Automatic annotation (TrEMBL):
NCBIfam families given in the database record: lgt
Pathway involvement of the protein, from the record: Protein modification; lipoprotein biosynthesis (diacylglyceryl transfer)
Species name: Bowdeniella nasicola
Protein name (database record): Phosphatidylglycerol--prolipoprotein diacylglyceryl transferase
Membrane topology reported for the UniProt record: Multi-pass membrane protein
UniProt keyword terms in alphabetical order: Cell membrane, Lipoprotein, Membrane, Transferase, Transmembrane, Transmembrane helix
Enzyme Commission designation: 2.5.1.145
InterPro entries with a match to the protein in the record: Lgt
Subcellular location: Cell membrane
Listed transmembrane segments: 17-34, 54-74, 94-111, 118-138, 171-189, 201-219, 231-251
Family in the record: Belongs to the Lgt family.
Example GO biological process: lipoprotein biosynthetic process
Gene, per the UniProt record: lgt
A GO cellular component entry from the record: plasma membrane
């Protein structure tokens, strides 16, 4: 299959908007919509207007953490040679694992500000993340980047920058697995009351396993190549701790189950109704 002729940017007069940025905005908008929808459910412990603040904190964490993570994990030598390159976001270069660390730090700040438990916030936001990841990977596809290894499968695509050979559309695999499938799993799992940290643990396991699997058909970053055993990529190395920590969180959350406590506002509402 030939790569579809998609302009990576939208041109509106003198204004140029890149599809990759649009996909980020779509992801944040969906997270806000889904978060508000869940916050409106009785006993959620959340108010709809709190969701917007949480998404804002998370958005800053994604962008800052994603860029710094890419610099540290994939582009340190380039950053040392040209420090200003760090700020050239228009040239691409975002790391999911760095973005995750950035989001976790942002969540920690949000939890302190709102006097919530850290894990209660991560459990709430975890099901909102996958669709954003999926749209981000679609942005990678439109840009014709992060393609996979050569393949003779009928859905192999000849990417403009990948030579005249069909390749795995690995970014679409990730969009499907890390985006749609992981969203369905987490949305279903979190629709019922679960012990604290269980939803967060399942997110880490799900993403880690899907990312580790897709890396087998994805070309490693040129500047790094394979990191270990002539087959393990940086993405797989960074995903392993996610899987291990996720399994531990899941097991321990059910072994020592604790549930979110009602917030003061909920207790006051209950008392007023009883009165």
């Amino acid at each position: 299959m030939k790569f579809p002729d998609i302009d990576p940017a939208i041109h509106i007069g003198p204004l140029t908007i890149h599809w990759y940025g649009v996909m980020y905005l779509v992801g944040f908008a969906l997270a806000w919509y889904l978060g508000v929808r869940r916050a409106k459910k009785p006993g959620s412990g959340w108010k709809p207007d709190e969701v917007a603040d949480l998404i804002m904190f998370a958005a800053v964490g994604v962008v800052v953490g994603g860029r710094l993570g890419y610099v540290l994990f994939y582009g340190l030598s380039e950053a040392i040679a040209d420090p200003l390159w760090i700020f050239r976001l228009n040239e691409g270069g975002m790391s999911f694992h760095g973005g995750l660390l950035g989001v976790l730090f942002a969540i920690w700040l949000f939890a302190r500000r709102t006097k919530r438990k850290f894990w209660d916030v991560t459990d709430f936001i975890a099901p909102l993340v996958p669709l954003g990841l999926g749209f981000g990977r679609i942005g990678n596809f439109i840009n014709g980047e992060l393609w996979g290894k050569e393949t003779d499968l009928p859905w192999g695509i000849i990417f403009p920058s990948g030579g005249n050979v069909p390749r795995h559309p690995s970014m679409l695999y990730e969009a499907f697995l890390e985006g749609l499938v992981l969203f369905i799993i987490l949305w279903w799992f979190s629709s019922k009351r679960r012990p604290r940290r269980a939803v967060s643990g399942l997110f880490l396991v799900g993403y880690g396993v899907f990312r580790f699997a897709v890396e087998f058909v994805r070309i490693p970053d040129v500047q790094l190549g394979y990191i270990a055993f002539d087959w393990m990529t940086m993405g797989q190395i960074l995903s392993l701790p996610m899987i291990i920590i996720g399994i531990w969180l899941l097991v321990d959350s059910y072994r020592n189950p604790r549930y979110p406590e009602p917030r003061e506002e909920e207790l006051e509402d209950t008392e007023s109704q009883e009165g």
